[in-house]
Amino acid sequence: MKTISAAIFEAPSVDWWGLLPQMVLLGVALSLLLITSISRRKFATAFSTLCSVLAGSTVFLIALGLWGDVQELGPRSSLASAFGVDGFSIFFTILISLGVVTTALLSHSYIEREGIDSAEFHALLMCSAAGAIVMASANDLIVMFIGLEALSIGLYVMIAIHTRRAEAREAAMKYFVLGAFSSAFFLYGIALVYGATGSTNLVQIRDYLDEVAFKDEHILLAGIGLLLIGLAFKVAAAPFHFWAPDVYQGAPSPVTGYMASIAKAAGFAALLRVFFAALPSYKLDWSPIISALAILTLVVGAVMAILQTDVKRMLAFSSVSHAGYVLVAIQSANASGTSAALFYLFTYSFVVIGSFGVVSLMGWKDGHSLDRYSGIGRSRPVLALTFTVFLLAQAGVPLTSGFVGKFQVITSAVDVENYVLASIAMLTAVISAYMYLKIVMTMYVTEDNSEGPDIAIHWTSGVVLGGILVFTLVVGIIPQFLIDFSQDAVPVLIAG
Amino acid sequence: MIVTTSWYLVLGALLFIIGGVGLLVRRNPLIMLMCVELMLNGVNLSFVAFSKALGDIGGQTVVFFVLVVAAAEVVVGLGLIVAILRRAPGSTADDLSVLKG
Fold it and tell me: 3.30.470.10, 3.30.70.1670, 1.10.287.3510, 2.40.50.150: which CATH number matches B5-90?
């Protein structure tokens, strides 16, 4: 009979400094919930918003410090190589922290006017952001799964936070069912990869696959396929996108912006970490599949967007087609393609948060049909101009960040001589441009409706929209600093 | 007859498929939740079978993480179902059809 030997358990070394971003977010979230639930007096919405903004800014500053650290000393990993502290993870930490700050500020007026419990909303926002950071930093598939679930479970509740609206309940239920479905696929993929390679650690999986030539690799390939399906659901790539329009439409607009930017960015971070960093030896297997997904996603996103009459659904399909562009960059499976994907995600995230911020201001009382936007160009010129810039940036018009992003993505496809994909990407860019211009035309050209919608812009929303507007134009005119930033953030896996 | 690892893997795959098909076919929200559990437990079984075959304890510890995540997911799922059924008692997934385009 085997007895358990008194093995000496050696705890893995913990790099607390590298874990600080998640700890700050979770700590502030839990303290906020605790304080607001034990205190007798009722806190103003501004208190929760302030907590989120401060936590997000702190994480941003910590991440900047870590970035300098990593550039100087090189990437490292902690917790028995389960958690990477490298340029890639810090790039996403910076993106996610800024996403928390902007979403918190944009949601302020929404939460106030709809009478939602603000502490719960902001605690969930911070917890799910912590999950997103874990997903982008994970060097172990199980850690990545935990991050994915922390992000998704937070989002399920954030979508349903406005329980009085039937649309929000329906959207939350749809996202929950399909989210759980896709998580199960992802998990099954982990199980099969574990069975084939003997480890869930990405570093060990990469090293194992470099050394061993498989005689029978069906289990491994099935596992890789299931991982791809699970992540394709999360980033809303066609044919796994069908939940996106309904969920984006039903969710509160600030949450939609957060979901379309940060949740999507975290999904792509996981995709790049698993496929580009850990499975380079299977490049020839996964690159064509991602290429096919990209074509389908681009076409579906562009064509379906034209058929919509609801602005939120239009933007939902446009976010599907953006996922297609990122996939175009990822399929090139080299460092320049990956940095193009990172640049695209960074610029696109802010534009989409800004777009849904405008939609959130517009949509109050009567929904989001396109007619509601007619004549805004005359009654609210500044707001209309801001929205126009966001839409043109998404269409990829020069002098905006979107142009630089699309240019790099298409260049990366040309570099690997995938001319078919590059042409399709350009063609669908033209088709989507029609949809964006349709919204712009509605704002400016259509006859003014007599009364015009009444829109109140709280200063918090104004600051965020202004900031994103400046960012979009600055990156469009002098993009080099962000290109360098994304080139330094290409993922590497370090054991240690 | 010797029961090998592949038996457990096939059983795990079957549970996963039954759960997946059930999730797509059944319309009762509670049954859909049970189907999600079935899928996750099919995966758990595969993890344990692989863990035994590889002689590696890692796969069995993974199961604990999955159990915790599944519990958290059920809490949120039941919360959503209660929120929906309280306003429309006896409703099924087909009744959730406000959003379309």
Answer: 1.10.287.3510
